[in-house]
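Quick question, first post here. What does this chain look like in 3D?
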Amino acid sequence: MARVTIGKYNKVLHMVRALLVSVFCLILTGCGLTESHSKTDHEFLITPGIGIKNLSLNDSIQHAKTQFSSEFVAKGSYLFLPAKGLDVSYGEDGRIRAIFLYYKLPGYVAFDGITDKGIGKESSINDVLKAYGSPSREGDSIISEFGSVPGAHEHTITYAHQGIEFTFWDKKLADIRVIRPQ
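> Answer (accepted):
Ran it through. Tokens below.
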């Protein structure tokens, strides 16, 4: 009778092992990730105060051109890359100071990326406030006749301590700027 009990025990043990191996395989393949952690729908993940893959604050111009894109066009203190929906500004030392990621800039492809908190092209002002909390600065203005979208209402939300800024035109996310945290 003890053999039957040991046999049942071994059978249950084998089933538990198989179940654990199955769960482990699902975890390894990424099944079960929550939506906020699944970033595979976009080419880039924006990290506040840092940048995006192969393009970070404090990188050199040379690094940006060799590691991110040789198609950057330099003019003044900016590198322009409309085909990816972004620009960067750099200082006299040739180091990147800010990264501009455009969703709605005329003449630019919409940037394909979201922040590490899920903010992207279709996000609202309330989405940003909910994800990032109280901003260090918030401002409103009307874009002049010389601006990119003359007459549009511009709303800017800045998180200086995190190194990120959001600009909305007529309540639509126009761009995200990665800046140095202060």
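The helical segments are 2-28, 61-68, 125-132.
The radius of gyration is 24 Å.
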